[in-house]
Fold this protein.
Amino acid sequence: MDELKRSTPLRNRKGAPTNGPPSFDPLRFVAKLEAAKSREALIAELAYFRAQGRGFEPGHEVEDWLAAEAEIEKRNLSKLER
């Protein structure tokens, strides 16, 4: 039995410590981050896309923000009504 333990690498033995760092899967956090996106971040993103569609013409920043805010509110209300 001792020969088997000595010949088996540490990473293959159940419960044995490994020499390398623990495995890390960054994709397991993606869904949580998307769900945790703040209301302000959603409004900013939507306002950016509105400005982009207009070619980033200056002078419409507040208009874009308010329209984006209204769109987010509309989406949230429609989710609640379902």
Q: What stands out?
A: The longest helix spans residues 61-81. The chain has four helices and no strands.
